[in-house]
Specification:
249 residues, mainly alpha, 2 domains, two-stranded antiparallel ribbon, 8 helices, globular
């Protein structure tokens, strides 16, 4: 049982990393510059791709010989996943993480026909090529290495998720109210300028989502003040412990 969970978790991570690479390549081509920061997590992985690929494998593998059905079902399931992921993340973080409102054939800016077609092609690629290859590679690992590797990577992923989520919640950036382009650019410049003076981690998150606007600067400053006060409190506590040790001696 533990081996099976570990086996699928490693595949989940591999698909998430492949999704990250695909996003980086796609965005770099679209923006005509290298874009390395995608997603809200620190690590180079996008869980939505991991879940999407596993859904394709678990539910659609039976259709591997019928490419048309595989294409349609992949497009449908992944589009549904993308829609509800966008909705859930917006409810949790009060943020719109991606917006396809400027594209034709889209639904509430959360999903669009272009992506659905790519998901369909991706489903064929995953089921026919990627999964047989990647599962074969993972299967070659000794069971003990598979289990321990999965456990270690799970805790790294968990820490990443908790830390990133905490920072985003503390920032409380809201993009429901759009402002004109020049003001947005000015706010972004001010926020990035403040980030360089403080935390690299927060810099990673905001570079990943350069279009986040609203009262970001104000919220960011509140967050950095909290960080500074926390650091000072930790230093005070350490100093108190040292004093107590000296007194005991």
């Amino acid at each position: 049982m533990l081996y099976t969970i570990s086996f699928w978790y490693l595949l989940f991570l591999l698909y998430s990393i492949i999704g990250y690479i695909a996003e980086v390549v796609s965005c770099s081509i679209t923006l005509k510059k290298i874009v390395l920061n995608r997603g809200f997590l620190i690590g180079p992985y996008l869980p939505i791709y991991g879940f999407g690929c596993l859904i394709m494998v678990w539910l659609l593998f039976r259709y591997e010989d019928d490419l048309l059905v595989l294409f349609i079902m992949s497009a449908f399931f992944c589009t549904v996943l993308e829609y509800f992921t966008s909705l859930l993340m917006e409810k949790l973080f009060k943020l719109r993480w991606w917006d396809y409102s400027n594209r034709k054939f889209q639904i509430n800016g959360r999903v669009c026909l272009d992506n659905a077609l790519l998901f369909g092609l991706g489903g064929i690629l995953v089921v026919k090529v990627l999964h047989p290859f990647l599962s074969g590679v993972v299967y070659l690992l000794p069971s003990s290495i598979t289990i321990w590797l999965a456990i270690i990577l799970f805790f790294i992923f968990l820490f990443d998720f908790v830390e990133s989520s905490y920072i985003i919640v503390r920032l409380k950036i809201n993009v429901d109210n759009y402002i004109h382009k020049d003001a947005t650019r000015k706010i972004k410049q001010e926020v990035l300028k403040a980030i360089r003076k403080h935390t690299t981690l927060t810099s990673r998150l905001l570079k990943a989502f350069p279009n986040l606007t609203s009262d970001a600067n104000k919220r960011f400053m509140e967050f950095t003040k909290l960080l500074d006060s926390t650091r000072k409190e930790i230093k005070i506590q350490k100093l108190k412990r040292k004093i107590e040790k000296v007194k005991k001696k």
